[in-house]
Predict the structure.
Amino acid sequence: MNTGGRLEGRVALVTGAARGLGYEIAKRLAADGAAVFLGGRDSEALHGACESIDGIARPLPFDITDAAATAAAFATLEEGGLDILVNNVGERDRRSLEDITRADMARLLDANLVAPFDLARRAGPLMRARGYGRIINITSIAAEIARGDAAYTASKGGLAALTRALAAELGRDGITVNSVAPGYFATEANAAMVADKAIAEHLARRTSLGRWGEPHEIAGAVAFLASPDASYITGQSIAVDGGYLAHF
Ligand SMILES: NC(=O)c1ccc[n+]([C@@H]2O[C@H](COP(=O)([O-])OP(=O)(O)OC[C@H]3O[C@@H](n4cnc5c(N)ncnc54)[C@H](OP(=O)(O)O)[C@@H]3O)[C@@H](O)[C@H]2O)c1
């Protein structure tokens, strides 16, 4: 969808953009006119994703948990500036509480919370220099409600709190910081769950819209928050969940 190039001249980084929701977000920001860097660890997958995007899309392979690789990626970004950061990577460990060790928890928090903090910290000065800044953290409905999954849920709750803290700290620089909280999306990573009839029945009962989200349906909220239209919105969370959080 092209919305008249409202992000023309803007530079964006979307982490974890080779597939899934990150890919859809990158595709939409490019359609809106931004030059988009696609982050991820698999260079080949990133090249393929960039080629399939209509607009300006470039691969930026780096592991967000690797501090040196992150610094090198930002050295590239410093050359052309950065206006929009989408912290999309979110790792998950579905094992039970007893099976997840302290070290596992630390690794997950590193990817889902410490790395987004580091990326935002590095993005701030680049955005201040441009006089425009949008940081969008992809959390989850798990930031608000829980059904176990302690490590992931805690990381997403932390990311929601980080969003508010960064909004307060960066607002005077003209940088807004918001979250988008996905519900259940039919991404490749969720293929087994999508095939599970019990989950389809749960979503039919439990969401207002009665269905899984299609991956592209995440992108509109992110593109809106990245745009000038959202200039006075900061520290907020938009749930894109078919009504999961609202439905009783
Ligand atoms: N899908 C859903 O239903 C759903 C629901 C709620 C919340 N969310 C959240 O939405 C976000 C996207 O979810 P998704 O389902 O689209 O994820 P996904 O399909 O698992 O994709 C994650 C992407 O992140 C990259 N990645 C993973 N670890 C990385 C690292 N350390 N450094 C750099 N890149 C890394 C992966 O690429 P490589 O492996 O090639 O690096 C991959 O492209 C996550 O934050 C997730 O928690 C999703």
